[in-house]
Amino acid sequence: MRPAGSMAKKELVDKGVKRIEWARTHMKVLESIRERLVREQAFEGLKVGMALHTEAKTAVLALTIQEAGAEVRLTSCNPLSTDDSVAVALNEEYGLTTYAKKGQNNAEYYKSLNKVLDMGPDYVIDDGADLIFLLHTKRKEMLPKVKGANEETTTGVMRLRAMAQQGELKFPVMSVNDAYMKYLFDNRYGTGQSTMDGFMAATNLVIAGKNFVVAGYGWCGRGIAMRAKGMGADVTVCEVDPVRAIEAKLDGFAVMPMSRAVRSADIAISATGCKDVVTAEDIRAMKDGCVLANSGHFDNEISKAALLKLAKKHSKVRDSVEEFVLRDGRRVYLLAEGRLVNLAAGQGHPVEIMDMSFAIQALCLEYLDFSAQTLEPDVYDVPDYLDDRVARLKLQTMGVKIDKLSKEQQAYVRNWREGT
Question: Residue 357's closest CA among 230, 173, 102, 174?
Fold first, then answer.
């Protein structure tokens, strides 16, 4: 008889394989790119260290890079975003070294990041810049070998641009996050849908008719506000950028400071990339039963320290839901420990959305391998032609055809002499 632990592990592997292959089946853009990369063995001999949310879509990207000839090590970029079935399946079934595990404490999380760096990577693919941060602080001995990196998310790009401005960045980094085929769809439609998925999975509460506050009106905030409005919520946006505040107002949303918005909020979700978006002052003003969640990368947008200080008791009342009972009896709920709710409580972005983002990742790794020696240490935008290639591949997979400019039209748009 097979031991119970062995059976449980096999079931976990089988579940992970099914999730990975489901994602692979629905990632047609990356599949098209993968066929060429594998045929050419484009990454042969390279070592690639990855810190991305370790779930099925990420697995397809990592396997693409491995199948194209690279040695790959993978861990998560967030302690709560790992799908354990996928991580175990990658190790046991696909032979891809993976260190991620859901629910790691801080020490375990950084131990996994360091294990990825122990391979001596030529390139890193990061989400939030923790790998890159380690390389520039505690693992400086690795820097001479690292040729470049890709960065996936807004928070990471913010950190890296600050490093570059201060002269601290030591290798070129591709800002995958700022590619049109990433942020227009991943940040807006991906975050919008997956945030609702995470909220519903955690709470099973209705959204229609609720007062719904969105902190931040970048592309992620736009997506969340759009989805909340579509589901029948009364949406208020909080912003610090005057241009984005006007845009939110003209898009039909109420706009006001967080200190006012939380007074009537049933649900408040942050998506800013900044810390202390919801403070002790805001918590004191909240109505009973307010649900707080975060879709930003780090767990510092909602002040957990303030919640603990103001609460007379707190407890876990559902998976991914903590109840904080304040001294006057009001209850405030925090989802997923204040970490990104779409992955910590949900399944992350839809497969077809990540197909575009990870197609950009694969092409940027190839671009870096061709260009890294000629690039100075800095943060670089994704070349337009890579964006265009992914867009055209996506249209093909959707069965959508578009117009082409005629030769006369092409000449016209380049001609400055023709006027009224």
Answer: 174
